[in-house]
Specification:
Strand content: 5-15%
Shape: globular
Order of helices and strands: HHEHEHEHEHHEHEH
CATH architecture of the largest domain: 3-Layer(aba) Sandwich
Helix content: 25-40%
Largest sheet: 4 strands, parallel
Number of strands: 6
Number of helices: 9
Number of domains: 2
Length: 203
């Protein structure tokens, strides 16, 4: 997520020891580092906090409990509200960096009937997936993201024609949100929507 995306000041802290592979996999040893980074941001004057990886939703409760400002660690927090925007037959496609690591426990939806309306697709194995595993990762390849996301959504819609909305888990995907809206003719939500809404409520 590029700070230049927003029309408000963004300050950044790095979570010590956090790399794509252990954040996506869900290393519980990272939680103290997430909390420490959040507290540093709050001390520097942050009025709201977010993260650059949707899998950081695992640390939502701990980070929110550690600071006195709104915390929105992942676009996945939007899922319960988005489900209620749609009629019951409709489904939401959650596009993720790695679907093998995005379990039901991260969706924040307890009702089994509602969970059945969530379809998960990932770009694991694609060029962007491989690039992000490099240390340090190369510059973001928007064309590669678009190619992988478009292909995955097409596969999902063949199997699930009821898909009526797309939610991007990955904070690298918003760069292609406008293109995906044009191609699919569907609403596309991502972490930037949640960040803007959160900042609008406090700024």
């Amino acid at each position: 997520m590029n700070p230049a995306t927003f029309d408000f000041l963004v300050i950044v802290e790095t979570v010590a020891g956090a790399w794509v592979e252990n954040v996506v996999r869900g290393d519980p040893m990272l939680e103290p580092a997430y909390v420490a980074a959040a507290q540093r941001l709050a001390e520097r004057g942050a009025v709201a906090l977010s993260s650059t990886c949707g899998f950081s939703v695992r640390h939502q409760a701990a980070v929110a409990a550690s600071v006195g400002v709104p915390v929105a660690m992942s676009s996945l927090l939007l899922l319960p509200a988005l489900l209620r925007q749609l009629p019951p037959p409709a489904k939401i496609a959650v596009m993720t960096y790695d679907s093998t690591c995005l379990g039901q426990d991260l969706l924040g939806v307890d009702d089994a009937t509602e969970r059945a309306r969530i379809v998960i697709g990932g770009i694991e194995g694609g060029k962007y997936w491989h690039d992000e595993l490099k240390r340090p990762p190369p510059p973001t390849d928007a064309a590669a993201i678009k190619t992988d996301v478009v292909a995955c959504i097409a596969r999902l819609r063949e199997t699930h024609p009821e898909i009526a909305l797309i939610l991007f888990e990955c904070a690298g995907f918003p760069v292609v949100s406008p293109a995906i809206r044009r191609i699919t003719k569907l609403p596309v939500y991502d972490i930037t929507n949640l960040c803007r809404m959160t900042m609008a409520s406090v700024a």
